[in-house]
Design brief:
mainly alpha; Amino acid/polyamine transporter I; two-stranded antiparallel ribbon; two-stranded parallel ribbon; 6 strands
């Protein structure tokens, strides 16, 4: 277990502070806790947490949702969701990870066996996302390599891939397209007319995809020795580049009009439920609620770490980064609307085209365009790598927490296990680099980052805040820090967050819209595949519930009572806890330690 975390800068093997045993709360496995590595300096966890939370979604998804939701109107629900959902739920996840000293699979199974599948779902959704998220890094590398050319390949219409409808700047009519649009669609993607026209594998993109996975592997295969240096660069360099881009952009003609569109709300948009659902989904995706990344990293914090400071730092820096990127992107939008002589709202923007079409088009008209293009795509690369290896690490940490001895016996070294995981994810990402890859990407992103995450967040909140209980969680926090959470956090955990997530989940189901890309609506069979992708993570929740109730002894009422009783992975500690007082609270619960573990065996239930 000494190498299970890779998101630290330097880790020392310091034992955690002794933990007093509180009735109704899990008891730590003290032997494993003493051997578990911890961050040598807490700033390292904070920096790694910021790097994990701040990613391409801040640069791409947030400005796109603002653009689609009436500019400044989106900021209202976004900031509200940050306060009542993002910060409290991040505080909850960091508390769970730091207290249990486990990744999401084991931590959530300890707190609420009935919903142990939520932890498995977190691992599944992180792994599914990493298979297509790395394609965005692939595109960034492709553009970065192309940025060394003079003139930039998307700077004019005199290229072999351009059509007769190509224009240098303006889009005069529905049938015209810019040089930047055609480079993205016809040169890099060689895009077909729909997902049913798969075409062939784009071999240059495939080779860059392999290169992207090699970069991820080099970031994590040696644990702290390789990742520590990477985190400093990838977490800090994007801010330098963002500020430089903003200083340059605000001097461009039309930039003020774009910024005005960004900060002045269209109040009518607030009546749309979709705007509120998208705001909540963006908070979950951006901070990483439900993905297990930050919970895994928090499990390596010292037991007495000040969680609230890390919570506020990570969540506020993440949102400020989104807003800063909004100023950068919308100042470029204003410049493009000035060049095309059309309102900002009429710019052709959809999905990843925001950063791979509109912004490169703006570079073409800037002084020293190659410099700005290289800086921008270096920034995208840094942001993408940070978030990507955090998602891969969730899978690796869970595997090592579960069966480190067996895995290391089979693979000999953790480096080989990392190679296998990265190799499998790379192969699963190949459909995204076919000529229909953009449609595959959009389909997976829609059903994973919007549909799956809402279900996952709902059950995580129910499992931790209600079944485990906000009171127990407050006890855990007081045990670690000496202070109970204030009334705001307790209200959010008990009432506000469960209520809002339930309402948002219901309305997102009622007003669900099939995946689309630009004017293309996916056919029914593709939508069906999308639901299969969504269910690949969600299905673990009911399966975990069924399995727990199946293997527990007694009547259904007894099974249900046992299934919502916290337990630990250590039989001796668990049995001692129930003998000291837990069994008084939950009848027949002493047998739970012999039948509940992450490797259930039905014949033991008798």
């Amino acid at each position: 277990m000494n190498n299970t975390i890779t998101l630290s800068l330097r880790i020392s093997h310091l034992p955690s502070a002794p933990r007093r045993e509180t009735a109704g709360t899990p008891v730590a496995d003290m032997d494993k806790e003493e051997s578990r590595p911890t961050w040598s300096r807490q700033i390292e966890f904070t920096l790694a947490g910021i790097g994990s939370a701040v990613g391409l979604g801040n640069i791409w998804r947030f400005p796109y949702l603002c653009f689609r939701s009436g500019g400044g109107a989106f900021l209202v629900p976004y900031l509200l969701m940050l306060v009542v959902l993002g910060i409290p739920l991040l505080h909850m996840e960091l508390t769970v990870g730091q207290y249990t000293k486990r990744g999401p699979v084991h931590a959530l199974a300890q707190l609420c066996p009935l919903l142990k599948g939520v932890g498995l779902a977190s691992v599944a959704i992180s792994f599914i996302m990493c298979t297509y998220y790395n394609v965005v890094i692939t595109w960034a590398l492709y553009y970065l390599f192309s940025s060394f050319r003079a003139p930039l390949p998307w700077q004019g219409c005199n290229n072999t891939w351009n059509t007769p409808n190509c224009t240098d700047h303006a889009t005069n009519g529905s049938h015209s397209s810019t040089a930047s649009q055609e480079f993205f669609k016809y040169k890099m993607l060689q895009q077909t007319g729909g997902i049913e026209e798969a075409g062939v594998v784009r071999w240059d993109l495939f080779l860059i995809l392999v290169l992207a996975w090699i970069l991820i592997y080099l970031c994590i295969f040696k644990g702290t020795k390789s990742t520590g240096k990477v985190v400093y660069v990838t977490a800090l360099l994007p801010y330098v580049i963002l500020i430089a881009l903003l200083v340059n952009n605000v001097q461009l003609p039309g930039a003020i009009q774009g910024i005005t569109f960004f900060i002045v709300p269209e109040w009518d948009m607030l009546l749309s439920v979709e705007v509120w659902v998208n705001a909540a989904a963006q908070i979950f995706n951006s901070i990483g609620i439900g993905f297990g990344c930050l919970m895994s990293m928090a499990s390596y914090s010292t037991f007495n770490n000040n969680i609230i400071k890390d919570t506020l730092t990570i969540s506020i820096v993440n949102s400020l980064t989104s807003i800063l990127s909004g100023f950068v992107i919308f100042s470029a939008f204003g410049y493009m609307s000035h060049l095309q002589d059309i309102p900002v709202a009429q710019l052709a923007v959809d999905g990843p085209g925001l950063v791979y079409v509109v912004y490169p088009q703006a570079f073409a008209s800037m002084p020293i365009p190659q410099l700005w293009a290289m800086l921008f795509f270096c920034m995208l690369l840094c942001l993408g790598i940070d978030s990507e290896f955090a998602m891969v690490e969730v899978m690796l940490t869970s595997l090592m927490d579960q069966s480190s001895q067996h895995l290391l016996k089979f693979f000999k070294k953790k480096e080989l296990l990392v190679l296998v995981v990265c190799g499998i994810a790379c192969v699963l990402g190949i459909p995204n680099v076919t000529q229909a890859g953009i449609y595959v990407f959009q389909l997976m992103d829609h059903y994973t980052a919007i549909v799956s995450i809402m279900f996952l967040a709902f059950f995580e909140v129910i499992g931790v805040c209600w079944l485990y209980g906000a009171s127990r969680l407050s006890d855990n926090l007081e045990e670690m820090t000496g202070k109970r959470p204030n009334i705001f956090f307790r209200l959010c955990w008990q009432i506000i967050a469960p209520f809002l997530i339930t309402v948002i989940l219901i309305f997102s189901i009622i007003q669900f819209k099939p995946a689309r890309y630009e004017g293309y609506v996916f056919p029914p069979w593709a939508q069906g595949i999308g639901w299969v992708i969504a269910m690949a993570s969600i299905i673990w929740i009911p399966l975990g519930t069924i399995h727990t109730l199946w293997v527990l002894p007694g009547s259904f009422v007894q099974k249900l009572k046992l299934s919502i009783t916290p337990y630990t992975l250590n039989d001796k500690s668990n049995m001692a806890y129930y003998e000291r007082g837990g069994s008084d609270r939950y009848p027949s619960v002493a047998v739970i330690s012999t039948v509940i573990s992450l490797r259930y065996k039905p014949n033991e239930a008798s």
